[in-house]
Write a structure and sequence with these properties.
about 250 residues; alpha/beta; Rossmann fold; DNA polymerase, domain 1; 7-stranded mixed sheet; 7 strands; binds xylulose-1,5-bisphosphate; binds magnesium ion
């Protein structure tokens, strides 16, 4: 029987709704600043989210959305420059406290800390984006609460590849069967599943139509005792919000 030894959190869409009102406007600000007339509206951004990673997303956009785009000689440098500017805009938004945690996230992290359960992060986003979000929402010490922060380019193959979860598990020296992944997207579920992890999904506007095949439980939010989640698929073991008892029941 598996025993719950760690929770591994995705960041974007799981800890906070960062995509529509965070990453998306930050990309648009970077495009404006570079004198480009590109604008990613909410619907376009939903299509672009099929590709994880900001640099990879810009490259995909240039290839698939801009007809007759004449790439600069140093395309990698061009994309990296745009992405650096995007990260600067995004971090400024986080620092202003513009992006709150989703329901249940703070409670869950506090419960894990109180009971000594290991927590970690496995995300595609840039490492600074993670530490700024944690500091802005949970306090200056919060990044240190996580035993591993696996983020960004530490693995070349981003989600849906399993590499980022495998990297995190290696650092934690834990077996996948003893950990639970918390995700919001189909790409995230594939990544965690292919690394051998059971997954709980908390959906959002961009991901509610994704394929969550293989997830143990799909809910619309982690919920709170006074505001329960809605179960979309899987077994919630009779619970109304996600906590460590339910995490243990899922792994048992
Ligand atoms: C998150 C992402 C990220 C962010 C942008 O996916 O795809 O690319 O949208 O971050 P997941 P960067 O939640 O599955 O990890 O621009 O820093 O790459
Ligand atoms: Mg996500």
């Amino acid at each position: 029987m598996s025993r719950l030894k760690a929770l591994l959190f995705d960041v974007d869409g799981t800890l906070a709704d960062t995509e529509r009102d965070g990453h998306r406007p930050a990309f648009n600000a970077a495009f404006r600043e570079a004198g480009l007339d590109w604008h990613w509206d909410e619907a376009t951004y939903g299509e672009l989210l099929a590709v994880t990673g900001g640099k990879e997303r810009i490259r995909f956009f240039l290839r698939e959305f801009i007809e007759g785009f004449n790439p600069p000689a140093d395309l990698d440098g061009f994309i990296a420059g745009l992405h650096q500017a995007k990260t600067r805009h995004y971090l400024a938004m986080l620092q202003e406290g513009g992006i709150p945690l989703r329901p249940g996230v703070r409670r869950l992290i506090e419960e894990a800390r109180r009971t000594g359960l290991t927590i970690g992060i496995a995300t595609t986003t840039t490492p600074e984006n993670v530490s700024y979000l944690l500091r802005a929402t949970l306090g200056a010490d919060a990044p240190g609460w996580f035993s591993v922060i696996a983020a960004g380019d530490v693995v070349p193959a981003k989600k849906p590849a399993p590499d980022i979860y495998q990297w995190a598990l290696q650092r934690l020296e834990l077996d996948a069967s003893d950990c639970l992944a918390l995700e919001d997207s189909g790409n995230g579920v594939r990544s965690a599943r292919d690394a051998g992890l059971a997954t709980v999904v908390t959906t959002n506007g961009y991901t509610e139509g994704d394929d969550f095949d293989g997830a143990a439980l799909v809910v619309d939010q982690f919920g709170e005792p006074e505001s329960p989640f809605r179960v979309l698929a899987g077994n919630a073991h009779g619970r109304e919000y996600f906590d460590l008892d339910l995490a243990r029941a899922i792994l048992a």
